[in-house]
Amino acid sequence: MARYIWSPRALKAKAKWEHVTCPLQDAITWILAGRVQAHTGATGVVWWTAPAYEDPAVARARLEAEAEALERVAAAERRRQDAERRAAAAAQRHRDAAGTGTGAGG
After folding, report:
1. Are 30 and 48 in contact, with CB atoms under 8 Å apart?
2. Which DSSP state fits 50?
3. Omega into 8 within 30° of 0, i.e. cis?
4. Which of 27, 35, 53, 98 is in the most buried spot, having the most CB atoms within 10 Å?
């Protein structure tokens, strides 16, 4: 048996599955009554837990995935802006080399 601990419910807060001991008879009763269900962790470990503990685990996983997606978008935007700055600088150097960037005409 395990329960999910995540407090406070913020992305940067630590979260973990915590082992819970209980009498075997209670565990069997809960399993047969459908009060607990099998859960497979990211490492492939399987344990029994109440559905109420899976909800925050799924919510946390979604938050982590959303944060990763936002970071990928932000990184792509930074790369695009850097490329634009490099292209503008190269264009300016080209104009300077051609003599058109100084404003002196002839």
Report:
1. yes
2. -
3. yes
4. 53
Q: 17 and 41 in contact (C-beta within 8 Å)?
A: yes
Under a CB-based contact definition with an 8 Å cutoff, are residues 67 and 11 in contact? yes
Question: In terms of DSSP H, where are the helices of the chain?
Answer: 24-33, 51-98
Q: DSSP assignment, residue 43?
A: T
Against a cut of 0.90, is the pTM above it? no
Mean pLDDT of 20-31: 93
**DSSP string covering 52-67, please?**
HHHHHHHHHHHHHHHH
3-class DSSP state for residue 48?
Answer: strand
Based on its alpha-carbon atoms, the radius of gyration of the chain, rounded to whole angstroms, reads: 28
**Separation CA 98–CA 66 (nearest Å):** 48
Annotate 2-15 with b (16+ C-beta within 10 A) or e (fewer). Answer: bebebeeeeeeeeb
**20-27, long-range: CB < 8 A, 24+ apart:** 27/1
